[in-house]
Design goal:
Oligomer: single chain
Number of helices: 32
Number of domains: 5
Helix content: 55-70%
Number of strands: 8
Length: 658
């Protein structure tokens, strides 16, 4: 028995059956209703979007026996003949096989004759851009001034190849690429009518693989029905299309976020064993990055990742927006350069290694290059703010001209500096030089302000100077803090990404938080020391596990109930990860493989600090180191001398262990 493929069986029979292309259908329907039909139409667009189908529907509307209409009856002989491709006055010409000028002239010789059965003689020339230059020249005059009973309908996938003289004689209608959702809806409608069982995710994969073409979507559907033995399931469609496992892009991005180069290379090696399409790997990873970035500003934007919502929200909450933008840009450049790579696998590896190498460092890391002079400048300014108001005896001193005051101050400062030069280190010298620079800049005041000072009582003048200096410095400190910590993005996290309204953050708090971020070297020291005192920390560091599972492990402590039964006490901050049974099963599998016997792992939410998690152990070690650092600073004789000479104060918030 003969079988008609879905692409032919479901070809539109009226304008209402066409999927999408409303802008084109509106033009044609109005033209038919008003009787203002152009003599030559050019339909352009990619393959499978409906160029030939719409041209045939237009021919049907012109030759329907009930008259020129946008809604042909489909029942008359003319409509049926056009639908079955045997209407004598509809001449369908394949320009790809009839490119010679002799073929074009043969066609045009019959233009002068009236239609045999219909109202118009319609010439439908498909792939018209394949005609030769001579054929176009032969067609020009007839196309510009055809007989009243002739209509030309041209279709092409490449209108740029048409001569401008042809384009200017036609009414050009461009058909757009079909949206994935439109294709999916049409496939669901077709499969329902055909009584084919299909999984929703499988239909989504087919619609996406069609890449905007309705014909390709129906052809792929035919293939998937044959592969699935009369039904469409996600597994068979994924195999047919060679769809990439969505876990792989997640693993790659999580490895980038953790800075885990070894894990990154392991995932790429796993992809190579699966025979992955390398360009597709970069495409899917870039798509995931786009969805994560979108999720950070639209909390409901999960897209096609509903099965991975938990991992999506975790990455959206923890990976910074500028890192996502950096990864996205590097992977796009990697796709562009893939064709120039010695090997596609090497090109992909270098793209991910580049993303790993260019992850921006924290303010703590970048501040290592800041010299001692700039680090102590803020401390000196704060010390000057707290200077005591001069006493009456000090304020009764004669007022000298400004220049004299500056010179005198310079001499005094140079004297002090020369006295201590032999007793201080180079670091202290640089601090003194920095303070001198600040004093000189602040002595430069406007003449009008100097005159105003002289006209006021000296005691109140000194008080106003101190008060104004305090106000100005607070303002400057605030501005500097805002500039240093300002986010370069104009949007902020919403809903569960934003801090609660109870917590009031200012610029200084944000700066302080960044400054106390631990460096990679310090983190390594903290982990090494935690391993020595905490068995669970030591076991975690010996295991190889994905970043998400490791995040669960370091935020919990392990209770050994018996030989095979374990209880994981997880902090409530990560309760959402503990509720996922798959995460706990993965951790149990890793522990079983490491210990050499099967273990049963149960997760409970527990915020009792009697037992510390590995992260809490590290934080305790850090606080001990911080206290030791503060004590060393307080007991340092050179720093004590600076405080004595310059009435300076130690800013304990700026002290950090290394």
């Amino acid at each position: 028995m003969s079988y008609q493929v879905l692409a032919r069986k479901w070809r539109p029979k009226s304008f209402t059956d066409v999927v999408g292309q409303q802008h084109v259908l509106t033009v044609l329907a109005n033209a038919l209703s008003l009787g203002r039909v152009h003599h030559a139409y050019l339909f352009s667009g990619t393959r499978g979007v409906g160029k030939t189908s719409i041209a045939r529907l237009l021919a049907k509307g012109l030759n329907c026996e009930k008259g020129i209409t946008a809604d042909p009856c489909g029942e008359c002989d003319n409509c049926k003949d056009i639908e079955q491709g045997r209407f004598i006055d509809l001449l369908e010409i394949d320009a790809a096989s009839r490119t010679k000028v002799e073929d074009t002239r043969e066609i045009l010789d019959n233009v002068q004759y009236l239609p045999t059965k219909g109202r118009f003689k319609v010439y439908l020339i498909d792939e018209v851009h394949m005609l030769s230059r001579s054929s176009f020249n032969a067609l020009l005059k007839t196309l510009e001034e055809p007989p009243e009973h002739v209509k030309f309908l041209l279709a092409t996938t490449d209108p740029q190849k048409l001569p401008i003289t042809i384009l200017s004689r036609c009414l050009h209608l461009h058909l757009s690429v079909l949206d994935t959702d439109l294709i999916k809806q049409q496939l669901i409608k077709v499969l329902s009518a055909e009584l084919i069982n299909a999984e929703d995710k499988a239909v989504q994969l087919l619609a996406k693989a069609a890449n905007g073409s309705m014909r390709d979507a129906l052809s792929l559907t035919d293939q998937s029905i044959a592969l699935g033995n009369g039904q469409i399931d996600t597994a068979s469609v994924s195999v047919m299309l060679g769809t990439l496992d969505k876990n792989l892009p997640f693993e790659l991005i999580e490895a980038l976020y953790q800075g885990d180069g070894n894990g990154l290379m392991q995932q790429i090696q796993l992809a190579a064993k699966q025979g992955v399409d390398w360009d597709n790997l970069l495409t899917e990873t870039s798509t995931l990055l786009h969805q994560i970035s979108l999720l950070q500003i639209v909390p409901s934007a999960i897209g096609d990742y509903s099965d991975y919502e938990e991992r999506m929200r975790y990455l959206a909450q923890h990976v910074s927006p500028n890192d996502i933008q950096l990864f996205y840009q590097i992977l796009l450049m990697g796709r562009k350069e893939l064709m120039y790579a010695p090997d596609k696998k090497i090109g992909v590896e270098m793209s991910f290694l580049r993303a790993l190498a260019f992850i921006p460092k924290s303010l703590q890391t970048t501040s290592k290059q800041t010299d001692v002079k700039s680090m102590t400048l803020a401390n000196n300014k704060k010390a000057e703010q707290s200077c005591p108001i001069p006493t009456e005896r000090e304020s009764s001193a004669p007022v000298l001209p400004p220049n004299t005051a500056v010179v005198t101050d310079k001499v005094a400062q140079q004297s002090i500096t020369s006295d201590v030069d032999n007793h201080v280190s180079d670091v202290t010298k640089s601090i003194l030089a920095a303070r001198q620079q600040v004093i000189e800049s602040e002595k430069s005041v406007k003449k009008s302000e100097q005159v105003e000072r002289r006209s006021q009582p000296e005691s109140s003048l000194q008080q106003q100077i101190v008060q104004r200096a305090v106000t100005e410095k607070e303002s400057k400190d605030e501005t500097i803090s805002v500039d240093e910590t300002a986010e370069t993005y104009q949007w902020q996290f919403s809903e569960h990404f934003t801090p609660s309204t109870d917590s009031k953050l200012n610029a200084k708090d944000v700066k302080q938080a960044f400054e106390h971020e631990k460096t990679a070297e310090l983190n390594k020291k903290l982990i090494d020391e935690a391993v020595k005192i905490d068995p669970w920390s030591a076991e975690i560091e010996m295991l190889t596990m994905p970043p998400l599972i490791k995040q669960i492990a370091v935020n919990s402590y392990l209770e050994q109930v018996d030989q095979t039964k374990l209880v994981l006490h997880l902090r409530s901050a990560l309760a959402h990860l503990g509720r996922n049974d798959n995460n706990i099963k993965r951790l149990a599998t890793i522990l079983s493989a490491s210990r050499g016997y099967e273990v049963t792992l149960t997760a409970v939410i527990d915020d009792d600090t009697t037992h510390l998690t590995p992260l809490e152990v590290r934080e305790n070690i850090y606080q001990m180191k911080l206290a030791e650092a503060k004590q060393l600073i307080q007991e340092d004789s050179k720093i004590a001398m600076i405080c004595q000479f310059f009435e300076a104060r130690i800013d304990e918030n700026s002290i950090r262990p290394v």
